[in-house]
Write a structure and sequence with these properties.
The protein is an all-alpha fold and 64 residues long. The protein has a domain of 42 residues. 48% of the residues lie in helices and 0% in strands. Helix 2 runs antiparallel to helix 3. The radius of gyration is 15 Å and the shape is flat.
């Protein structure tokens, strides 16, 4: 990423209140989870938050 890219990202973060443009708000997450079938909600919410795969398995970082 060059300096122009980082400046654009910083400007976008300023506009969106410090979050990434594609990052969901807590309210958006809750609305999407509420539309999901009850049996799958726990896995879907974890997926939306980036902590689970859609099959329910935890996302494991390979970084040391």
């Amino acid at each position: 990423m060059n300096d122009d890219d980082s400046e654009a990202a910083e400007h976008t973060a300023d506009i969106t209140g410090g979050r990434a443009p594609d990052e969901l708000t807590e309210r958006e997450i809750q609305e999407l989870v509420a539309r999901c079938p009850e049996q799958q909600r726990w896995a879907f919410e974890g997926w939306l938050r980036g902590v689970r795969q859609l099959d329910g398995d935890p996302i494991v970082s390979l970084a040391p």
